[in-house]
Task: structure prediction
Amino acid sequence: MAYQYIGLKEINGPLVVLDEVENASFDELVELHLENGSVRLGRIVQIMGKRVVVQVFEGTNTLSLGNTTTRFTGKPMEMPLSKELLGRIFNGAGKPIDGLGDIYPDTYADINGQPINPVSRTYPRNYIRTGISSIDALMTLIRGQKLPIFSDSGLSHNKLAVQIVRQAKIAEEAGQGFAIVFAAMGVKNDVADYFKAKFEESGVLERVAMFINLSNDPIIERILTPRCALTAAEYLAYQHNMHILVILTDMTSYAEAVREFSSSKGEIPGRKGYPGYLYSDFASLYERAGVIKGSTGSVTQIPILTMPNGDITHPIPDLTGYITEGQIVLDRDLAQQGIYPPIAVLPSLSRLMKDGIGEGYTRSDHSSVANQLFACYAKVSDARSLASVIGEEELSPTDKSYLEFGRQFEQYFLQQGENEDRTIEQTLDLGWDLLCLLPKEELDRIDSDLLFQFYDSNRADRFRKRKAF
Result:
């Protein structure tokens, strides 16, 4: 039953307080009718006996204490859902902003999602190809995984996000589709226009549902944005058996909105002023990725966050790392060398890739090549440190080969054009070209059968000649 109350007890920032409210529920949707006839939406965020605190989505400007009528709807905030979501652009609260009219819904769903019983989850298998060698080979994105990108201000994470959206694919499987839900939080107008323009130019917008929250939009809407996006993803994945990739950028803007909202409620701050429940708040978003028994669809997440001052121990990347299954770290030094995408290989990993690659998924040698590339690139830093002390001329032939491997690895494996889409076969073949620059006895992570099949000392010469032109 819906209840209506006239007047407000208190207005505090984005919050309004009402007294003597009966039968209110946490997260219940509220309508606030203003004197001029307009309606604003809110939700209950705190209940203290018969006193309730309502979070107003559009802000509290021009609200009147005496003449505002508040209607409690008796249900949580729901989002209209249908396959028409694809190819559309919405604001952070899930309302269309592309001028194409409203969605004709097949159903409605609570934006907070339904808790997934751990017993009903199935282990993520198979992979999503991004067309980016460093990701596909070394930190493979598995369907149903949550794999964040840790960036820093000024780095090319927006460009990388666009490239992933444009190039991401799954292996062709009968009766299954692939789509992307893209949510941008707290972005400037020029960044929002950049995303829209790039998706339209590349022709991928028809398989993308975009949720855009601008930096001048209310912070409350920013808190809703990932929830609306994930609700759309869950509907497409579990009702239409599609594989959905969700890209959330920038989770730092989201966390800042949570901190500001927490402060307005007068809550006791935790680390760096963020609320103590930031971990569980993040978990309520990240854990909505996965594969569920009985559905052939999946929800895969790539949250992107900018680390404040490049500090990976900051609460935002720290808590994200606890919840997610790996990370992709962008490096400022590589970016300053002109390398794109500037992915730092050594601190990056995908904890689920071992069970979604290899025979039947990518290629039988994938795991061995990835392990060997990691091991060899780790030795490159040792060789560079030694060369900085005694000079490159004094190094042993093996150390010199590692220096050459490092230069070629960064220049041709990590470095990749913004529009360059590599298949997994091209990526692994390139990996073998680079490994052949090293003496055979240095490749101790690969068994003899694979070495016999792929290792060829002449392959390194052909690689050098090919790259010289």
